Amino acid sequence: MKVSIIGTTGFGGVELLRILHQHPTFQIQSIHSTKDEIPIWEEYPHLYRLLDKKLEPINSEQIADQSEIVFLATPSGISGQLASEFVDKDIKVIDLSGDLRLPSSDYKAWYKHEPVHESLLSKAVYGLSEWNMELIKNSNFIANPGCYPTASLLSLAPVVKEDLIDPASIVIDAKSGVSGAGKSLSRNTSMSEANENLRVYKVNQHQHTPEIEQQLLQWNNSIQPVTFTTHLLPITRGIMTTAYVQLKNEMRTTQLLELYSEIYHQHPFIRIRPENTFPSIKEVAGSNYCDIGLHADNRTGRLTIVSVIDNLMKGAAGQAVQNANLMSGFDVMTGLDFVPMYP
Ligand SMILES: NC(=O)C1=CN([C@@H]2O[C@H](COP(=O)(O)OP(=O)(O)OC[C@H]3O[C@@H](n4cnc5c(N)ncnc54)[C@H](OP(=O)(O)O)[C@@H]3O)[C@@H](O)[C@H]2O)C=CC1
Ligand SMILES: CC(=O)N[C@@H](CCC(=O)OP(=O)(O)O)C(=O)O
């Protein structure tokens, strides 16, 4: 199947290249950029002699004629416009941005951009692979989830769906490596500011807050607004979310681990860690895994759930290819069977 990438020179785009280059069924047809028409290895020398492709201008007609799947690894505000040029044609579109994940009013309030037209928005399926599998399989248009929502939602889904927690008690403490901010230079992600530092940012204003709440509410309509706080870690890849929730009734850690293991049993990318072990970011780096560890504190009645992903893989390009696999009728693992890059 022929696939094309727009926004190829960004961190999400170049991660898509890494995955798709060795995918057994998807074939990279064309790669697109607003930049000069140069070989991709001139922009990314690690691809020298591995990928013999030139960046091409974004000509939607031509891309639509040549591709069966288009990945949009473009910024919010841009993706929505580009998507509208493809969705009515008979090709599949997977968008990595936040443009198609939220209702217009929330998008406007949190992203501060003009939302896309309702007719386009209504066609997009939220691509949280493990939980929206059937909808994804039957869709041609995917709003790939944000990186933080992926880690947070996968960790909270079982207790929220099973109605085991006080719905007003959710606190998510989240930390990300700097590649989450994309390739553009910024002061906070510069070496001198980020290295040997830990910085909190967008306190109570992060654009992923409504995305998390929206999905939690679909699972359990009693859920109240969540506290979601993001921090910048001095590492390149990876996200850790630590969720704190109040259990409605006393439960043992073993019971909860059994529940999580049962629920995620058939989902190869979700690894539930044994009791008293917790995942670290490096244990999933470079892979599409989401690893989850948890502990119920019987002193406080609170449950602590730790979830780690690679923001560029399960948090972006990896989940996008997982969704493309689902849309194409392939096994989810196809082309995504990466062992984490440890150490
Ligand atoms: N980084 C991450 O961990 C995650 C990112 N995302 C989302 O994925 C998308 C891509 O993120 P990321 O790769 O990090 O971002 P980057 O900033 O690294 O790259 C974005 C790319 O978009 C292209 N672009 C910029 N402006 C335009 C435009 N006007 N028209 C067409 N293309 C344009 C650029 O490519 P060129 O210069 O070649 O045109 C640029 O390289 C974003 O929406 C981001 O929010 C989602 C989850 C995680
Ligand atoms: C570390 C870092 O800065 N991360 C970014 C993630 C942005 C992102 O993925 O944007 P979407 O809204 O399109 O999903 C942030 O926190 O804003």
From TrEMBL:
Its EC number is 1.2.1.38. It is found in: Cytoplasm. InterPro entries: AGPR (IPR050085), AGPR_AS (IPR023013), AGPR_dimerisation_dom (IPR058924), AGPR_type-1 (IPR000706), NAD(P)-bd_dom_sf (IPR036291), Semialdehyde_DH_NAD-bd (IPR000534). The keyword Cytoplasm applies. Its main location: cytoplasm. Pfam families: Semialdhyde_dh (PF01118), Semialdhyde_dhC_1 (PF22698). It catalyses: N-acetyl-L-glutamate 5-semialdehyde + phosphate + NADP(+) = N-acetyl-L-glutamyl 5-phosphate + NADPH + H(+). Catalyzes the NADPH-dependent reduction of N-acetyl-5-glutamyl phosphate to yield N-acetyl-L-glutamate 5-semialdehyde. PANTHER family: N-ACETYL-GAMMA-GLUTAMYL-PHOSPHATE REDUCTASE, CHLOROPLASTIC-RELATED, N-ACETYL-GAMMA-GLUTAMYL-PHOSPHATE REDUCTASE, CHLOROPLASTIC-RELATED-RELATED. This is N-acetyl-gamma-glutamyl-phosphate reductase.
